[in-house]
Write a structure and sequence with these properties.
Radius of gyration: 23 Å
Number of domains: 2
Number of helices: 16
Strand content: 15-25%
Bound molecules: adenosine-5'-diphosphate, magnesium ion
Largest sheet: 6 strands, mixed
Shape: globular
Oligomer: single chain
Helix content: 40-55%
Structural class: alpha/beta
Distance between the termini: 61 Å
CATH architecture of the largest domain: 3-Layer(aba) Sandwich
Order of helices and strands: HHHEEEEHHEEEHEHEEEHHHHHHEHHEH
Length: 471
């Protein structure tokens, strides 16, 4: 017997029906993408796997979820005052941020972007970190603050192992960076040494973090119930406030902490095979076309770097199987990996919402394709199916977090351009989370922009307060 809640979930996760002039073709296409669509039972199975992987990770058993301790044991308490810095490395822009706080809330922000030439991104780490330090000095001196002791939060968006709030050992470089001699070294130490070599400011590096953690802390200034930070941008990850007594990996001395932020690192969820039951041939090809194969399984289902590619792979396969663009000559451009970016998926999804087709036609024209009516419907259907799967997967994990967190009301702070610009993700997520978490649990989704900048400065303020207390 299907329980009513499962029935509601089943109903909610249906996508709009595909309506084509050719019913046989419709059936074939629906069958072809059927594995992208989850039943309520599959959604529950994914949820069980996620919960099990979280429990294993937090107990330091083998798991695809790292469940990293960030060593941030509390949020802002309203007493933080003064000036704090952030250095944001590894996102789309490299920036220095100054934040002025009064009663724990930002009252002024200054931001400056700096450029990192490609010659600094590869090679020895010393010139790179000297450049980071030079940028910090330039900014601090331009603000006339060279003689002021300034706490700094370092957003270092690369895989690292944290031994304490201010020790983060680089596991491997990613993106466009590769300075091998920094691997296995503490990024904070490298930055401190570079600042010391200059000796022209009084900047104190107090914390190292990633953008997800910064987003949670930034969100907490907007809504004090914030207990989850979520990134849906180029990549995807989440963190949450965990009960300290549940956390086994804790290298520093404990001081009666009640909570701590755990960085789940969910981009790698499934890298050990636990999600293989949802993998489609489209996902296998998306993975094969990616830079690092067999890793970041979950991220490849949901994040901005990949969602467009999932859509492109499906469209390319349907074309080759002569179910799409049949009257048209095959578009080489559409058959090339990386050519359909996620912003285009958003634009096509907007058409579906509006019941229109102008964006879809315009985008296909750029690929040299003149579609017929059925082609347009199929392209829109595929964008909806892929987007909807991403929304459902993210919601499954977020619902599990809400259930795990012992609070009346849980606010989820979200940052990232995919979440911000996709016209349907937010609406689907609200609906799915409420059906997937324990009935009656209260939650909210809020936009918390710039966790990697503002959020990092706020973390340095927390670190500064903790340090004073322990002295
Ligand atoms: P980052 O994650 O690098 O810090 P963002 O949060 O701005 O930066 O995310 C950038 C990513 O968001 C892009 O790589 C792209 O995949 C995705 N993106 C950008 N614009 C849109 C859009 N209009 N709709 C959906 N996704 C988008
Ligand atoms: Mg970002």
């Amino acid at each position: 017997m299907v329980v009513p809640a499962e029935h509601a979930l089943h109903e909610a996760i249906q996508v709009s029906p595909l309506i084509l002039s050719d019913d046989v073709k419709r059936q074939k296409i629906e069958n072809r993408v059927a594995k992208m669509r989850f039943s309520a039972a599959t959604a529950r199975k994914i949820q069980d796997v996620f919960i099990s992987e979280m429990n294993k990770g937090i107990h330091q058993q083998p798991s695809s979820l790292q469940m990293e301790n960030t060593y941030i044991p509390e949020l802002l308490d309203g007493t933080e005052e003064g000036l704090y810095l952030a250095l944001d490395l590894g996102g789309t822009n490299f920036r220095v941020v100054l934040l002025e706080l009064a009663h724990g809330a930002p009252i002024r922000e200054e931001v400056k972007r700096y450029y990192i030439g490609s010659e600094l991104r590869v090679g020895s780490a010393i010139p790179l970190f000297d450049h980071l330090a030079e940028s910090v000095s330039d900014f601090v001196i331009s603000q006339g603050l060279q003689d002021v002791e300034l706490p700094l939060g370092f957003t270092f968006s690369f895989p690292m192992i944290q031994h304490s709030l201010d020790v983060g050992v680089l596991v491997t470089w990613t993106k466009t960076f590769n300075c091998p001699d920094a691997v296995n070294k503490d990024a904070v130490r490298l930055l401190r040494e570079a600042l010391d070599r200059r000796g022209d400011t009084k900047v104190k590096v107090l914390a190292v973090l990633n953008d997800t953690t910064g987003t949670l802390v930034q969100g907490s200034t907007l809504d004090h119930n914030t207990a989850v930070g979520l990134i849906l941008g180029t990549g995807s990850n989440a963190c949450y406030l965990e009960r300290a007594d549940r956390v086994e990996h804790w290298e520093t001395e404990r001081h009666g902490e009640r909570e701590v932020i755990i960085d789940i690192e969910w981009g790698a969820f499934g890298d050990n095979g636990v999600l293989d039951f949802i993998k489609t041939d489209f996902d296998r090809e998306n993975d094969a076309n990616s830079l690092i194969v067999n890793s970041f399984t979950f991220e490849k289902y949901i994040a901005g770097k990949y969602l467009g590619e999932v859509v492109r792979v499906i469209l390319a396969k349907l074309t080759k199987e002569r179910l799409l663009f049949v009257g048209d000559s095959t578009s080489d451009s559409l058959l090339t990996s990386g050519n359909l970016t996620t912003d285009l998926v958003s634009h096509i999804e907007q058409d579906s919402l509006d019941g229109g087709d102008s964006n879809t036609k315009e985008i296909l024209a750029k690929f040299g394709i003149i579609p017929d009516e059925d082609d347009i419907r199929i392209v829109q259907y595929v964008c909806e199916v892929a987007s909807n799967r991403a929304a459902l997967l993210v919601s499954i994990c977020l619902a599990s977090l809400i259930d795990r967190i012992d609070k009346e009301q849980v606010t989820i702070a979200v940052d990232g351009s995919l979440y911000k610009h996709h016209p349907r993700l937010e609406g689907w997520m609200k609906q799915y989370i409420s059906l997937l978490c324990t009935p009656g649990r209260k939650f909210k989704l809020i936009h918390a922009e710039d966790g990697s900048g503002k959020g990092a400065a706020l973390v340095s303020a927390i670190a500064h307060r903790l340090k004073k207390r322990l002295q």
